[in-house]
Amino acid sequence: MPSDLVIVYHRQPYEEVEEDGKIVFKENKSPNGIVPTLKGFFGRVDKGAWVAWKLSDTPSDPGFERVVEIEDSYGKYSVSRLPLTEAQVKSFYHVTSKEAFWPILHSFKEKYDYDPVDWPTFREVNWAFAEAAAAEAAEGAVVWVHDYNLWLVPGYLRKLRPDLRISFFHHTPFPSADMFNVLPWRREIIESLLAADVVGFHIPRYAANFVGVAESLFDVETGERKPVNPDFIKEHVALSERRVAQTITFNGHEVHVQASPVGVDLDYIQSKAGTDETTEKARQIREDLGDVAMVLSVGRTDYTKGGSDQLMSFERILDENPELHGKVRLMHVSVSANRNMTVYEGIQNEIEATVGRINGRFGTFDWTPVTLMSRAIPFDELVAYYRAADVAWITPLADGMNLVAKEFAACRSDNRGALVLSEFAGAAVEMGSAILANPFSHKSMDRALLQALHMSEEEQEDRMKHMRQTISKYDIKAWAEDQMAGFTAKDGTI
Questions:
Q1: What is the pLDDT, as a whole number, of residue 490?
Q2: I need a surface site. Which of 43, 290, 484, 490 has the fewest CB within 10 A?
Q3: How far apart are the C-alpha atoms of 174 and 210, rounded to whole Å?
Q4: Strands 3-8 and 137-146
Q5: What is the pLDDT of residues 324-355, one digit of tens each?
Q6: Which residues pair with 51 in a beta bridge?
Q7: Nearest Cα residue to 15 out of 34, 30, 33, 3
């Protein structure tokens, strides 16, 4: 049976586990709620489908189960699985997406590597995703494509199925024209996105940048630049944008350009943070710390996250504020990326060396200034650290949104704790009540952390209440509803 809604996302919407020698599908729950939220839309249609890839040593094996039928708490839906070889995944994802696209999207031109890109393989994989979606979609169905590694899917889909309503959501930053146009494939990418009906971004700045890139490459007509939602304008925040064109017309086809910040599943996170187990774990963490302020930093090992810059800021603070010795500890969670990827070579080593230097310079028998965690922390455990922390220190050099900052606020129903947030994280345009820091300025970074460490309980409560109101209003469900609202049609919406 054809599907009224097809979601195209690289992740499968379940976990495959082996039980008694058989592979079974287990319902997964992402802490940020994106996968469960997307699946929630299947309940609104007669039939839904999901398209993802699956690693396969033998993609031509006739026994490979390309389409599986799933029934879980979200209903019944199909999953089309594209068998990709390890070589295809390396070329399409690890090399092209991560070594060529990722640095440009985050405005790190010096990290960009064009030479190893195999563009024909990227096209081939995107075509396979488009074919699978076209095969699943009913007449006039909605197809919702996610993220930059599937940039070419909208264009291919439009050729295969002109009847479809196509939406694309960009989960990373989108840079200005002088940065994006470094990519040799810029026209092909943007022409594909202009084949969609809706193109969504986290914040107005990224939407404005997309409009600017389209104008630089093609003869397009842009709609009136309209005022941005005041909730997404924060004074003195680098990523604030005040007016954005909401439509682009190209070759007679109108594209709606939309800014909708991805939120968190507030109810889910609060339920985890409020359990007796979490309360006890948070109490144990505090007891082990003793009379020490805990600063928590959580992120991936990635040059965009600014882990080394943050550690050097902590080192300067300890150097210039000896009264803090023995009184503060940094819990630095930097989850190791794949060290086999060229783009991440040396980053983890640099972080480890910096932590070693700090602990060697300032540590004592009964005080270790920095604790480095390089393993992925289960979310049930992470919420206890959120509850126990005095300060969350989230200072990426560039970040599309940053859900860690929102998760921290979601956990703090006690209205305690201070958040230091980079003004170059998309979340900064919503969470203006955080202490905002410019990670490119030593003075700004150091001053922000010291301000957080000395913040009164009254000020903590005031700031946290404002942040919690924001993440409650713009939660994961609000994001999904706003994106789907772009499909208003004569016969209703999904």
A1: 33
A2: 490
A3: 7
A4: parallel
A5: 999 999 999 998 766 556 557 688 889 999 99
A6: 8, 80
A7: 30
Distance CA 355, CA 353 (A): 6
Over the stretch 84-143, which tens digit does the pLDDT of each residue have?
999 999 999 999 999 999 999 999 999 998 889 999 999 999 999 999 999 999 999 999
Coil, strand, or helix at residue 8? strand
Q: Which residues, including other chains, have CB under 8 Å from residue 391's CB and lie 6 or more apart?
A: 293, 294, 295, 296, 417, 418, 419, 420, 449, 452, 453
Number of neighbouring beta carbons within 10 Å of residue 388: 22
Token reading at 421: 């947030």
Half-sphere CA count of 10, side-chain side, radius 13 A? 15
In terms of Cα–Cα distance, which of 202, 207, 246 is closest to 225? Answer: 246
> What's at 234, amino acid-wise?
K
The residue type at 488: T
Residues of the chain with pLDDT under 70: 18, 21, 23, 28-33, 337-343, 345, 487-494
* Ramachandran sector of residue 448 (left: φ over 0; alpha: ψ -120 to 50; beta: rest): alpha
How far, CA to CA in Å, does 287 sit from each of 166, 275, 291, 363? 53, 18, 8, 20
Sheet containing strand 247-250, edge to edge, reads 67-72, 75-84, 48-55, 3-8, 137-146, 165-169, 198-201, 253-259, 247-250, 221-222
